[in-house]
């Protein structure tokens, strides 16, 4: 059985290759039953998509391959500690575990600093105004969901 160092080494090499191809220095592979199920690299700039992080790309590919919105029994190997957005996606995908190489502090030194996001989460406020508009029908979608009998719970 291949160990974590083997898989994380593959993620690091993929991240390095992505830089050569013009992408960001991040990559992710998802492994299930000792085989690579999916890969993802940072394509934020090339796709003009701020959500095109390596982990998000890999999760989308893995879920498509599994035909599921869950990554049960999968291990995510990321070349760097997941940012808050990626952590949220990972949390919802529910893999068995996550292994990462570089830390968020190492990423910050290279110019990828998520400190303001972590601070906004901790403080409950950030530099982008978040306004709650109270409306009488705001709960309508949830009311419909609650009574729906043929829903896929996630």
Question: What does this molecule look like?
Answer:
The protein is α+β, with helices and mostly antiparallel strands and 154 residues long. The chain has 7 helices and 4 strands; from the N terminus they run αββααβαβααα. It has helices spanning 4-20, 44-47, 54-66, 84-93, 104-109, 115-123, 140-147; strands at 27-32, 35-41, 74-80, 97-102. It has a 4-stranded mixed β-sheet. Strand 3, helix 4 and strand 4 form a beta-alpha-beta unit. Helix 3 packs parallel to helix 4 (84-93). The radius of gyration is 18 Å and the shape is globular. The chain starts with a helix and ends in a 7-residue tail after the last helix.
What's the tally of helices?
A: 7
Low-confidence region ranges = none
Helix-residue proportion: 40-55%
Between the first and last Cα atoms, what is the distance in angstroms? 32 Å
The fraction of residues assigned to DSSP E strands is 15-25%
Which structural class best describes the helix and strand composition? alpha+beta
Write down the secondary-structure element order.
HEEHHEHEHHH
Q: Based on the structure, what is the oligomeric state of the protein chains?
A: single chain
Indicate the mean pLDDT.
94
Number of strands: 4
**Strands of the biggest beta sheet: in what spatial order?**
2-1-3-4
Shape: globular
Q: Describe the sheet with the most strands.
A: 4 strands, mixed
CA-atom Rg in angstroms: 18 Å
């Amino acid at each position: 059985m291949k160990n974590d160092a083997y898989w994380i080494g593959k993620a690091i090499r993929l991240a390095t290759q992505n830089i050569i191809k013009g992408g960001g220095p991040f990559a992710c592979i998802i492994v299930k039953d000792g085989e690579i199920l999916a890969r993802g690299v940072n394509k934020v700039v090339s796709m003009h998509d701020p959500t095109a992080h390596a982990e998000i790309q890999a999760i989308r590919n893995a879920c498509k391959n599994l035909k599921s919105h869950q990554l049960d029994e999968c291990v995510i190997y990321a070349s760097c500690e997941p940012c808050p957005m990626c952590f949220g996606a990972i949390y919802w995908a529910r893999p068995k575990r996550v292994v990462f190489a570089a830390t968020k502090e190492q990423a910050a030194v290279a110019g990828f600093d998520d400190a303001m996001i972590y601070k906004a989460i901790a403080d409950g406020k950030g530099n982008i105004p978040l306004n709650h508009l109270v409306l009488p029908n705001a709960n309508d979608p949830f009311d419909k969901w609650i009574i729906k009998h043929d829903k896929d719970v996630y």
